[in-house]
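Before going further, learn to read the protein records used in this course. A complete example follows; check for yourself that the lines match position by position.
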Amino acid sequence: MNQDVKQYVKHQRFLLAAGVMMVLLGAARGAGGVALVAKGGAADPKIQAAGAAVVSAGASLLLLGALLVVSGVGVIMRRRTAWVLGALATIAFVMGGAVNGTVLYGKPSVTGTAINVVAAAAIIACLLAGRGALNAPTTRK
């Protein structure tokens, strides 16, 4: 196997890792959104917000979850548009966590925010390390 193909395979593994993390994260966010939309404030006794704020937070989680799943699948398929969308969705994931934490609980959780930042950093790092697989490997003779 020539060096270009080896490098391509390495990049492809990073894209696969990023895509899988995005799909799992998106599914978890979407599940949280379903719980908030279906149960409202009863989804978590610590929620301080009421009515429309809870439903809005749930809807934002559903939207972000869908965006992460779709872009994660696209990243696994090595689509450049999905790569860009996935990076933006990952940043939105961190920001959305802080906003929803403030809306629902009065302030974002320090632990939750730290976990979100670490997860996002891992995804972004894998996206950057894997971007070479967005192009087909070249063979040199």
Remarks:
- The chain has a mean pLDDT of 92.
- DSSP finds four helices and no strands in the chain.
- Residues 3-134 form one domain.
